[in-house]
Design goal:
Number of strands: 2
Shape: rod-shaped
Distance between the termini: 46 Å
Number of helices: 8
Largest sheet: 2 strands, antiparallel
Strand order of the largest sheet: 1-2
Strand content: under 5%
């Protein structure tokens, strides 16, 4: 039994074809939207790539851009195809193209759904948070190597300034890494030597933070050194906090996590919307295809014709697909016992 069986008249087929032409042109726009959001996400990942450690994040913009470009090209072809398929004579020229067209369409819609699933999965699985955790920790450890990697130092400073954050989770994270470059340390100074000796890893650790941790909107000066022993500047401040010290109060992992989470959520919703719309177009083309194939068997362009999504039930369709690749070997050949007659008979049988 056919799935989604309907009967379309001649006027129904013409209306369906015109609607599909319009929907295919709209799909070109939605494909361009996918490309745009993919490029935007790529630019945002590229912007802070030094503090990201997961390569899987880059798969989302790649899938979005390629599926978007594919959708634009395919739907431009689909608009012309649907316009011609409303006429029986022109349909015969496209008949062999329709099956591959439907296959590629389903492949592209699957790609859009994959992009939505990746966007949702990166948030739900904690991969984004783990990438920021590892990336920020590594960037803070390499911050002092400005002579070899000035780009990393500049990018981490820009992250803290533009995202209004300090450290990985709090400003005290800077106390556990050496962020001052060796070229600015006087090894002959006893105080510097004492700090090197006091740490088992041989690092210069201090209760200080880079300049980019300072909040310019703070009503009082922002100190960068001796933060552990510095009293709060306001006489009502009983507890020393980052705000009372004029520092950013949020960690960069939280700030960047919120930033990228909002982008990924927007992308997932956009991709799901585009996927639903593309599936609507695919179903419409399928109805037009099957109605015209039924019309070819009838032979009368003005008569009604049946259309369906699946010619058989879902189970039967899956069984047919499974059997397409089946090969017969030896005694499994169903024609092994069938006699050969006519001109095609084997010479030994004559």
């Amino acid at each position: 039994m056919a799935v989604g069986r309907v009967v379309l008249s001649c006027s129904d087929r013409q209306v369906l074809a015109r609607v599909l032409v319009v929907l295919n042109w709209v799909s070109v726009v939605t494909g361009a939207v996918l490309v745009s959001v993919g490029v935007y996400l790529w630019a945002e990942l590229r912007r802070w790539e030094e503090v990201m450690s997961e390569d899987i994040l880059w798969s989302v913009p790649v899938v979005l851009v390629w599926t978007g470009l594919g959708a634009c090209a395919l739907n431009l072809t689909g608009a012309r195809l649907c316009l011609d398929c409303s006429d029986l004579n022109r349909f015969l020229r496209w008949k062999l193209v329709l099956a591959p067209y439907m296959g590629v369409s389903l492949l592209l819609t699957t790609g859009v759904l994959l992009a939505a699933a990746l966007s949702l999965g990166l948030n739900a699985s904690g991969r984004l948070d783990a990438a920021l955790e590892a990336g920020l920790s590594s960037a803070m450890r390499r911050y002092k190597d400005s002579d070899r990697n000035l780009e990393l130092k500049t990018q981490l400073d820009l992250v803290q300034i533009q995202m209004s954050c300090c450290g990985k989770d709090r400003y005290q994270d800077w106390f556990r890494v050496q962020w001052v470059s060796d070229q600015y340390l006087d090894r002959t100074d006893p105080r510097v030597q004492d700090r090197f000796r006091s740490n088992v890893a041989g690092l210069y650790l201090s209760d200080s933070v880079p300049f980019s941790c300072c909040d310019p909107a703070s009503p009082w000066p922002c100190p960068q050194t001796h933060l552990s022993s510095r009293p709060a500047p306001h006489f009502l401040s009983l507890v020393q906090s980052s705000r009372s010290l004029g520092l950013w109060g949020k960690g960069c992992r939280e700030a960047l996590g919120q930033h990228y989470s909002s982008i990924l959520n927007l992308i997932s919703l956009t991709a799901l919307g585009v996927w639903g719309f593309e599936m609507l177009v695919v179903l419409g083309v399928r109805y037009l295809q099957t109605s015209m194939e039924s019309l070819v068997l009838i032979g009368d362009p003005e008569s009604d014709s049946e259309a369906w999504i699946l010619e058989s039930s879902l189970c039967e369709t899956l069984r047919v697909i499974k059997s397409l690749g089946k090969c017969y070997h030896g005694n499994d050949d169903p024609n092994i016992d069938r006699p050969i007659t006519g001109s095609g008979a084997h010479p030994t049988d004559q």
